[in-house]
User: Fold this.
Amino acid sequence: MDMSTDSLAMAPQISLFAGAVITLLVGSFLPRARQWVSRALAVAALIACSSAAIAALVGAPRRVFEGTFAADDTTSIAALIICSATLLVIALGVDELRGSDRESEAYVLLLLASLGALLMAGTTDLLVLIVAFLLASIPLYALIGLARTPDAAEATLKTYLLGALFGIGLMLGVTIVYGAGGATTYAELAQVLPDISPVIVGVGVVAVLGALLFKAGAVPAHFWVPDAAQGASTWAAAFATTVPKVGGLVAMYRLFDEVDPGIEWPLLIAVVAAVTMTLGNLAALNQSDPRRLLGWSTVSQAGYLLLPVAVAGGSDLASSSLLLYLAAYAVTNVTAFAVIAALPELTTLSDYRGLARRHPWLAGALAISLLSLVGTPPTAVFIGKLTTFTAAWDGGFGWLVAIAAVNTVASLFYYLRWLAPVFATGQINREFTDPRPAGMRAAIVGAVVILVLGIGSGALGTMSVQ
Assistant:
């Protein structure tokens, strides 16, 4: 093992860790009026991580640190998604965080939680997966609780208890798998697990899967998501419903793509996907709080994102469709929260009545983000859903594609419940205040990226077919 070469391959992760440490130290000695320096350091760390990930894309994929971490295209693209989403979260939260007594700590926690998600996406060892899970989870609890309101306290407690429960399950599952197979790296497990009792392997794998479903916000570990979306600060809610999902889903895909545990795991994932998207959509139908609606929307989106995981190794489109959908979802979900951050006084769907006449740019950004979450062309999520549905169909899960299509149509109803007041005509019953500039800028930038990503991905797909 060449430590210097291996460390160079971990440049994206090192950038985030170094940025978190430096931001913590510098922020501890800065007066409250100059905490913008902490924000600049956090942004610099995220840009450095993105740059290192782009540089890694041109290199050959390899395993580092005794095969416990994959420095490949999947990890690099996950790093780009995580860093881009976190940058947009910081952008939409500037007005809310500026001058607060926990501003520098917020940026440190964002960097550490992003680092944990990125480590989850790249790990090829169950022991490293445990460490990455804890690193992605513990800062998340603090981020949700920074709002210091009763709703935030409830959301933090619920997230912590579920995280602790499924974290213990993860450690139990790894212990069982290691005890039965005597290995923790995916390469070694792929060789030994087929010879072990499927009952023992099944218990261990299901325990590990539960922790990853918690990070993805999927059934049965989804209960924390709507509470976090409603109770946390807007920027923290945007982060909590986006970035952990990237780490959890990529980790899940990598595990099942590289290790065949010898049980019917594709059917298990498919059933979880169907239940997750259906429950998320049904729960979102009657929501009147836009933040809670987005929380349940996040649960339903996790169901769609599980489609390529169910066919990991069974479809050539699985990996690329998952990454494309994650990129599309990340920018779309954060953009919707950016609109909420721009107009924090609007707490119900009916409060948005007449927004299109008063703030047309924000109304347009909201319309683009919500229609993208549905999967309307030419938005980014449309391409993501199209490719994931195709991958699931190729993998033999036609029935799951049919359920996903029905759920997609059903989701249109609750997104339209939000959009209808925005573009309603007639008398406006309330006066809109001027939007917060940071949230408005983030919303407009996010909306543009949604369209560019959707149109660009569609054009590339058309060219590849020709």
